[in-house]
Every structure is written in structure tokens, then in C-alpha cells.
Design goal:
This protein has about 375 residues and is an all-alpha fold. The protein has helices at about 1-20, 30-55, 60-75, 80-115, 130-145, 150-170, 180-205, 205-215, 225-245, 245-255, 255-260, 265-290, 295-305, 310-335, 345-360, and strands at about 170-175, 175.
Length: about 375
């Protein structure tokens, strides 16, 4: 019952917010429109987060949440049982914030990669970043480095960085970053790391298999509050850099020749956007595991509803991606309570049918 309620709230507010913009996706993007859509999507994110705070194996009443809200509003001390405080502030709130940051990072990176590669079926993992990150994480789990603070995320991030350097080096030809070569290099590198992952899984002990499999399917259950500031910093800096190049990305998507004629340094822009989007993806994957399809479906939904201008598409995808992953993680928490599903299972169940729909719609 609660699952249906969560999804109904999400769908209701999402559809009501975009009804005014549907059918007008290609109209001119103005600052007021960007602000209006961002505020409305921010409201969706806030409401989804509130609902997620309320649901779980241990039920927290609406009255408790209202106490927290009014206590914060008037600066008074929060009076709640210790158990409810622990559940809300030590377990659910960090996980909601964490899911929002990861969803925002993957969605924003998906927008960039689809634009750079001019391929609507591209997503952040197609360039092999997930494979390199997974190899680093599995090595940390097998070697016991995961017991060290930041051990698994640290090695995972280093694996992703190594992949970025490798793919960039392969794709870079005569000081130019070739989009087609970049795509092919990413696919090949990802295939290679998939083979390495299968080898590492086959030689790992049974005690490590559970941790490895959950990480490979995307798992937010082991979120640590100390990881949130680092991810938030990566997101803030990375998105700021990406958004500065939103106009340039619009021109590159239209035509690289046109962009150069209008004064855009195409090669520099492509390199900056590729590296920045790769880094925020690496930061997200290093702490959440492989969560697929978020970077594929969210940019498409926003593009269909709001148009393809990246000045609007980037912030809307970021906010809606955060909301989507919070909902997916909430469903993962309660679908088989008290047991939990990896959130990657939920996103795959949503994303795979949508991917098929895109293929059919494009006539592939």
C-alpha cells in the first residue's frame, strides 16, 4: 500500500508540474522559465523526500515529521523518542540526501554524454567508467581494504580515474577528441573490465560474494554520512562547470562546424565537458555501486517534456534525477521489507522497458 502511495505522489506531482510545459517544449528558454521549472522540480524533490522519510519497515508517523518541521522553523528543540531520532536522522535522512546526490550526478552526466556523442542512447556507463570503478571496488573488497575508512570508495574512484585516462588517451587523435572513437573506446574498455570483473568474482571467497554482487547492482544501504560532503562538493563544482558550457553544448549538438563558425572552441569544450561529466560519474559510482539507466531515461523524459536546450535540460534533469533515485531507493527499501533490494534492480526494472520503447520509437 505504501509503495503505491509513494509512486502515486511522485507521478501526480510530476504530471501536474509539466502539464503547462508539455507541447511547448521547443519554445525559447528564458531565465524566468529556467527558474520556474527549477523551483517546481525542487518542490517535487522536497515532497518526495518527505514521503521517503515517512516510509520504511519502522513506521514513523506524520506527526513526528511535523514536530521536526515546526521545531526547525521556530528554532526550538526537537522532542522525539530516541529511536525515532536515530531512524530519521542517522539512517533515512543521510540515505535520502545520498540517493538524491547520486541520482543528480548520473542524470546530469547523461545529458552531457548524450550531447557530446550526439547519441540519445548513450548513458554515463557507456564510456567504461562503471567498469573501472567496479574493478577498483572489487579489489578493495577482496583485499580487505574496505575495512579502512574510504577504502572501497577510494579504490573505486581511482579505478574510474584510470578508465577516464585510458578512454581519453585512446579517443584523442591529433589533439582532437573524436566522438565516434570516444564511444567505441568506451565500449571496448567496458567490455575488457567486464571480463576482469568476472575473473575477480570467480576467484573471490564466498564471504565476499554478497558484498561484491550488491555493489555491482547498486547499493545505498551502507551509506556513510561522511561521504556526503565530498559527493556534494564534486556535484556543485562539476555541475557549475558543465552549466557554464550549456550554450556551447547546444551549438555542438547542432553541428560542430556551426559551433566553430560562431566562435566556440569545440575541442576545448568537448574535453572539459567529457572530463567533468566523467569525474562526477566516477564520484557517484565510487560510493553507490553501479546504478544503471538513470543517466539514460531521465534526460530523455526531460527532453520530451521541456525541449533540448541544455540551459533548461541540465538543471531539470539534475533535480528530476535526484527525485527519481530517491523514489527508486524508497521502493527498494520497502518492497521486500525487512530485507532490502539493491536500488539498481529497481532502476533496471524501470529503465529496460523504457530503453526498448526508445529503440522502437527510433525504428531501430
Amino acid at each position: 500500500m505504501i509503495k503505491h502511495f509513494v509512486l502515486s505522489i511522485f507521478i501526480f506531482f510530476g504530471s501536474s508540474i509539466f502539464s503547462a510545459d508539455k507541447g511547448q517544449a521547443d519554445r525559447a528558454v528564458t531565465l524566468s522559465r529556467v527558474i520556474r521549472v527549477s523551483v517546481l522540480l525542487g518542490l517535487v524533490l522536497f515532497l518526495v523526500s518527505l514521503v521517503s522519510m515517512l516510509v520504511g519497515p519502522s513506521q514513523i508517523g506524520t506527526a513526528s515529521l511535523l514536530k521536526i518541521f515546526f521545531s526547525g522553523l521556530f528554532g526550538s528543540e526537537i522532542v522525539l523518542p530516541d529511536m525515532e531520532k536515530t531512524i530519521l536522522f542517522s539512517i533515512r535522512l543521510p540515505r535520502i540526501v545520498f540517493a538524491g546526490l547520486v541520482g543528480a550526478a548520473l542524470a546530469a552526466a547523461g545529458v552531457v554524454f548524450q550531447g557530446l556523442l550526439r547519441n540519445p542512447l548513450a548513458d554515463p556507463y557507456i564510456l567504461g567508467i562503471s567498469g573501472g570503478s567496479a574493478v577498483g571496488a572489487i579489489i578493495a573488497i577482496i583485499s580487505g581494504a574496505g575495512a579502512i575508512p574510504f577504502g572501497t570508495p577510494g579504490l573505486s574512484f581511482l579505478g574510474a580515474l584510470a578508465t577516464i585516462v585510458l578512454v581519453y588517451g585512446i579517443a584523442r587523435s591529433n589533439r582532437e577528441l573524436q566522438s565516434n572513437t570516444l564511444l567505441l573506446a568506451g565500449v571496448i574498455v567496458n567490455a575488457f573490465f567486464s571480463a576482469v570483473i568476472m575473473f575477480l568474482v570467480s576467484v573471490s571467497s564466498n564471504t565476499n560474494l554478497h558484498s561484491i554482487m550488491f555493489w555491482l547492482m547498486g547499493d545505498l544501504s551502507l551509506v556513510v554520512g561522511e561521504d556526503i560532503p565530498a559527493i556534494a562538493l564534486f556535484m556543485a563544482v562539476g555541475f557549475s562547470v558543465i552549466y557554464l558550457y550549456a550554450r556551447h553544448l547546444n551549438l555542438i549538438v547542432m553541428s560542430e562546424e556551426t559551433a566553430m563558425q560562431l566562435g566556440v572552441d569545440v575541442e576545448k569544450t568537448k574535453k572539459i565537458l567529457f572530463l567533468t561529466a566523467s569525474l562526477i560519474t566516477a564520484a557517484a559510482v565510487s560510493v553507490s555501486g553501479i546504478i544503471g539507466f538513470v543517466g539514460l531515461i531521465i534526460p530523455h523524459i526531460m527532453r520530451m517534456l521541456l525541449g533540448s536546450d541544455h540551459r533548461l535540460l541540465l538543471p531539470s534533469s539534475l533535480l528530476f534525477g535526484a527525485s527519481f533515485l530517491i523514489v527508486a531507493d524508497t521502493v527498494a527499501r520497502i518492497a521486500m521489507a525487512p530485507a532490502e533490494l539493491p536500488v539498481g534492480v529497481i532502476t533496471a526494472l524501470c529503465g529496460a522497458p523504457y530503453f526498448i520503447y526508445l529503440l522502437r520509437r527510433r525504428g531501430v
